[in-house]
Task: structure prediction
Amino acid sequence: MLKTFRIGGIHPKENKFSAGKTIQPIALPKQVMIPLSQHIGAPCQPIVKKGDKVKVGTRLGKSVGFVSANIHSSVSGTVNKIDKVLDASGYKRDAVIIDVEGDEWENAIDRSETVKKEFNFSSREIIEKIAEAGIVGMGGATFPTHVKLTPPPGTKAEVLIINAVECEPYLTSDHELMMEKTEEIFVGVQLLMKAINVPRAVIGIENNKKDAISKFTNVATSYANITIQPLKVQYPQGGEKQLIDAVIRRQVPSGALPISVGAVVQNVGTAFAVYEAVQKNKPLVQRVVTVTGKDVKNPCNILARVGTPLSQLIEFAGGLPETTGKIVSGGPMMGKAIAGIEVPVTKGTSGILIIPTLEAKRKAMKDCIRCGKCVNVCPMGLNPTLLMNLTEYEVWDRAEKNAITDCIECGSCSYTCPADRPLLDYIRLGKGKVMAIVRARKN
Amino acid sequence: MSSALRSQQVSMENKLVVSPSPHVHSGDSISKNMYGVLIALLPAFLVALYVFRLDALIITFASVVFCVIFEYVIAKFIMKKQPTVFDGSAILTGVLLAFNVPSNLPIWILAIGALAAIGIGKMSFGGLGNNIFNPALVGRVFLLISFPAQMTTWPTPDVGATTDAVTSATVLSHLKFNTPGLPSLTNILMGTEGGSLGEMSAVALLLGLIYMLWKKIITWHIPISIMATVVIFTGIFYLFTPIPQYNPLIHLASGGLMLGAVFMATDYVTSPLTKKGMLIYGFFIGVVTVAIRLWGAYPEGVSFAILLMNGFTPLINYYTTPKRFGEVKKNG
Result:
C-alpha cells in the first residue's frame, strides 16, 4: 500500500494533457511588467528609475523587512516606468515596466548547461545567496525561501521534505522539470540540506509520475541521505501539513509550523531555483509554466521570463479557444480566476488553465442535505457545512471553536458537495473574520 | 451591483467568469445520490415482485406517484417555490414508504401515508434537507398508529399461490406471541416469510448495502453499528437463555431491521454528519430496537428507534466533532 495522508482527501480527474511535453522557451516579449510584490510579505523597494539600463539579473527591487524577497530583471533593456499594473491576483500593484532590448545577462551569472555538483559553502552563505537571488516557494504560496530556511530559535530541523507531488490536476510544470533537470534538483536538495543542517531528505512523488519516480530512484542511489517516497495519488497531498503526514507520519498541531515536528518542506521547483542561485549565481527570473485546458490546441510547458504577459504564453499554446469561459492562474483547485490575459507571469505562476464555458459557471446552490461528504473529504478534519452555517449567521465564537482558522482552503469540500454549495467561499470569509478577531484580542 | 452593470463588465472582459477557487466540481449531485439509492433498492424490489407479484408493483408505483404529486402540489401552490420533484428524493420516499407497508394495503390508506410522509414529514419543515424525521418513516408510523389492523395483516408469501387472501404472522410476531410455526433461518434470509413489501429478503437488502458502499453513497458506520449492536445485545441474552426469542441471527435477518439499518437510518438529512456521531446514532438505534422487540408492546421497533434517534441527530451533531488534523499523537 502506497503512503498518503491520513485524513480526508479527494481524487479529482487528473487531466494532465501537457505531461511529457518538453519545456520550451518562448520568444522574448517586447515589454515586461515585473511586479515588486511577487511573494508573501512586504513589497520591494524599487532601486531603479525611469531610463535606467538593466541586464538580465540586475536587481530592480530590494527586499524590506524580514519577510520579503528581492526582485531582479528578467530581460535586458530600458526601464520605461514604474507604475501600477493588474496582476494575477486581481490587484493593481507597483511594477517595473521594461522595454526589452537584446538579451544581455549580468556577468556573474553562469549560463552554461554543465551540472555543477561540488560546493563548499557554509549554511549561512547558502541562505544569503538564496535571499540575494529572491527565491520564493515555487509551488504557488511564494513564501520567501530564505525565511523558511531560518527556523525560529529553539527549534531543530530533522528532515527536509521535498514536495514533488504536484497534486493539482492539469499542471505538469514540476513533473517536466523533474524529468529534465534531475541532477540539478538533487544538488539543490543537498544545498537545502546543508542550509538547514539536516542529515536526511525525503522526496515525495505521487504515483501518477512513474517515470519521475524511477528516474529519481536511480539517481538517489548515489546519494545515501536522500530517499524517494512514492505516494498514492490524493489531493491535497501538496499541502505542507498533508505531505509531512504522508511522508513521515507526523501531524503538525493546529497553529504550529512544520518545524514543530522537525520538518522543513520545500517545493521541487524551489530546489532547482536554489541550485541555479547558489551554483550558477542566477537569480529567480524565469520559471516553467504549464499552459493547458480541455480545448487548448497545444497544451505545453513553457520556460517563461518573469513579467511576460500571459497572453503571449497562451498564444504559444495555440491561442485562446473559442470556448473559453474562464482563465485560471494556477491549478483548478486552488488557482485564481483572472479577469484578463494582459497580466504578467510571476515567480508563483505554475500554470495557466483555460476552462471551457460549459464548465466555467457554477451550478445553482441547493439546500444542504447533510450527507456529510464535505466532512469526510476535509483533510484538516473540519466540519465544512457547519463552518459555512456559522459564517452565514456570523457565530464567530463557535466558528473559532470549530477551528475555522485551520482551513487550508484546498477546496475539497466545495468540489465534493452534491448540493453545489459554495462551502469554501463562506469558510474563507469566516476565517478572515475570526483571524481578525483573534488578532484584535491579542493586541 | 445592478445586473445591467454586471453584464456590461462581463462583456468588456470578453465574458470571462471570475469566481473563487475551486474551479472544478466532482459532478456529484443530489439526484445522483437519490437515484443511486433507488438502484440499490432494486434487488429488494425484485424479491418483492417475485413474492407478491402484481401487488408489489401496484403498491410501489402508487406510492411513488402519490409522493411525487403531493410534493409538487405543496411546493408549487402552498410554498410557492419551484418544485424539485426530479431530484429523486420524492421518488425515494415513495419507494421506501411502499417497502414499509404490507403488499395488500388498500390504496386509499397508502395515499394517506404518502400525504403524511411528504406533507408532515418533509414539506412542513421546508423540503429536502430541512426535515428532522425520515419522511417515509413518518408516513409508516402514521399509518401504523391510525390503521393498526391493516398495517399488521400480511398476505402469506406463498410463492406461486393463486390466492392472497390468507394472512400470516411475521417472524417477529411468532417470537413475540410465541405462536408455533417459526420458519427456518434460511427462509428468513431468502425472503419467503411474511412481512412488509420491501423487508422480505435480508440478502437482497445486503446487496443494496454493498452497492451503496461501492458507489460511496453511504459509509459503513450507520448500518454496521446498528447490526452489530443488535447482534451483541440479543447475543448476550442468547448465551444465557438459548431460545429463538433471543437468537441474534433471527433478529438480524427478520422484520424491518435490514431495511431500516441500510436504507432508512442512513437517510442523509436525518442522520449525523460525523463518523463518531454515526456510530453513536447506530448504537442507540440498535439498543432501542432490541428493547422494543423484547419488552415492548409492538413486535417490531426499528421504525420507532430510527425516528427517536432522528430527533437526537442535531444534538449528536452538536457534540461530536470530526477527528481533527494534528489531534493524533505527534509521532504516531
Q: What stands out?
A: Residues 373-442 of chain A form one domain. Chain A touches chain B through 73 residues (CB under 8 Å).
